[in-house]
Design brief:
The chain is an all-alpha fold. Among the domains are: 47 residues, no CATH class; 67 residues, no CATH class. Helix content is 49%, strand content 0%. It has 8 helices and no strands. Helix 5 crosses helix 7 and helix 6 packs across helix 8. The radius of gyration is 39 Å and the shape is elongated. The N and C termini lie far apart (90 Å).
Length: 178
């Protein structure tokens, strides 16, 4: 008798639990689809497409002389609106207030990287750079490395770059007192 109770009790509990879940009394996400919920899920698309629409007066559509409804549901996909050729879509506005642009940070990181490179390789990389941008990075590099780099450049470009380096190196930030 004890063996029968030990065997049947879990089966009865599982059966009762399954019944409660199926009927919707116990809610388990993804499992508690009772008959009503299944029907709602199946016909949600029909409700969204409003296949059964009313007249302007709010009455169901009627077509027969006796006033009874003769509406027939159509199984057609909703029509997509095609944009006119004259309509121009405006691109969405991008909000960049969340980020602050600090060129000094990028210049420091690039200067650290360039300190590890050979001057000839560096001169090939920077041949298309303008002097102002290049000087902003060179100011933050080791002076010995900058000297090697300048000696590997064309004399005219090295002269222009040296002048820009002088301008940027002489800029001193103002102290703000409270």
């Amino acid at each position: 008798m004890k063996k029968a109770i030990i065997f049947l009790l879990p089966l009865v509990l599982l059966g009762v639990g399954g019944f409660l879940v199926f009927t919707g009394k116990v809610k388990i996400p993804g499992v508690n689809l009772g008959p009503k919920q299944k029907a709602n899920d199946l016909y949600a698309a029909d409700k969204a497409n409003s296949l059964y629409t009313a007249d302007k007066d709010g009455k169901a559509p009627t077509g027969a002389k006796d006033g009874k409804s003769t509406a027939v549901a159509k199984n057609e996909p909703p029509k997509k609106e095609t944009p006119k050729k004259d309509d121009k879509k405006t691109p969405p506005k991008v909000v960049v207030d969340a980020f602050e642009n600090k060129p000094e940070v990028g210049q420091k990181k690039l200067a650290k990287l360039w300190n590890e490179m050979e001057p000839t390789t560096l001169s090939g990389i920077t041949k298309d750079w303008n002097e102002k941008d290049l000087a902003g990075i060179l100011v933050r590099m080791d002076t010995a490395k900058v000297a090697e780099f300048l000696s590997s450049l064309d004399p005219k470009r090295a002269s222009k770059l040296s002048r820009e380096l002088q301008k940027q190196a002489s800029i001193v930030p103002r102290e703000t007192g409270s």
